[in-house]
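Summary for the steering committee. One of the milestones for this cycle was to obtain a three-dimensional model of the protein with magnesium ion bound, which we needed before selecting residues for the alanine scan. The sequence and ligand used are listed below.
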Amino acid sequence: MSRLHEALKKAEQQKTENGSPLDLERPTVIPGDGKGVAVLPPAELPSGAAELRVLLMERCSQSLWNPDRKMMLFFDRRNPVVGVEEFRTLRSHLSLIREQLPLQSLLVTSPLPSEGKTVVAANLAQVLVQQREQRVLLVDSDLRYSRMHLSLGASRSPGLSDYLSGAKDELAILQRGPLENLFFIAGGKAASNPTELIGNGRLRLLLRRLCPAFDWIIMDSPPVIPVSDAKLLAEYLDGVLIVVQSDATPHDLARKACQEFASKKIVGVVLNRVKPEYSYGSQYYATTPETKK
Ligand SMILES: Nc1ncnc2c1ncn2[C@@H]1O[C@H](COP(=O)(O)OP(=O)(O)O)[C@@H](O)[C@H]1O
Ligand SMILES: [Mg+2]
């Protein structure tokens, strides 16, 4: 019997023994010509939350980021900046919802490009870590147009695409900047097959393994109307926050974007770029569990 047949037979036996054909923690190894991409086994991570947190603090050294301080509102505490108060209000609303519903991971999305998803996701993560003992993981899961690293002044890779393709493990893709308790996973190397990467099962594994260490996981995403990635991503997460741009997002597209998600997943809508005469920056409308019935 050829080596390939032996490997396939072994894989089939493993499948029957494990009862699961897609066991990403024990990948099936098929011998070949060595030209394929090797899928790294997951890092050795403790399962307990406290041990995992200690390990992440030890292994992810802090680096100097160079954030865009005009848009990233919480890196410089010297001046009260327009918009800070609105993000505190958003934090309060989410905390209230969390008292009634399980809400640890949140997708930030919007109907169209350039409506403020990245700005809202990044500032939301920053305002959450202003609270004592709140650990936040911010993930750039817009694999088509990764830009979060530019707003933070952090490295683009290794990042999420490198993990999903199997080239890097969890510890290799986590970054820490100057804000205590804020961890970041950048988009990673440009990928030609983002939807396939998001759906290949490694994202679920990543979230399952890192969730115990964090109080919040905030994921930035591509827009809902042109591509299907956000809808796919939402299946792995507890809630969805929709960003719409004041005086710009067409009403019918906002409605259509909301309809792409199960209504119980949508935890609120952020109205971004509100004119200063009406507000300080952005407004937040919560959909409370009561109003969703
Ligand atoms: N509230 C805001 N005030 C001013 N500029 C904003 C605001 N929100 C977003 N922007 C700017 O709009 C552009 C698009 O924002 P971004 O968050 O990258 O959008 P998206 O992620 O939805 O594509 C960026 O140049 C960003 O700096
Ligand atoms: Mg963006």
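Key point for the committee: Residues 97 and 288 are 7 Å apart (CA to CA).
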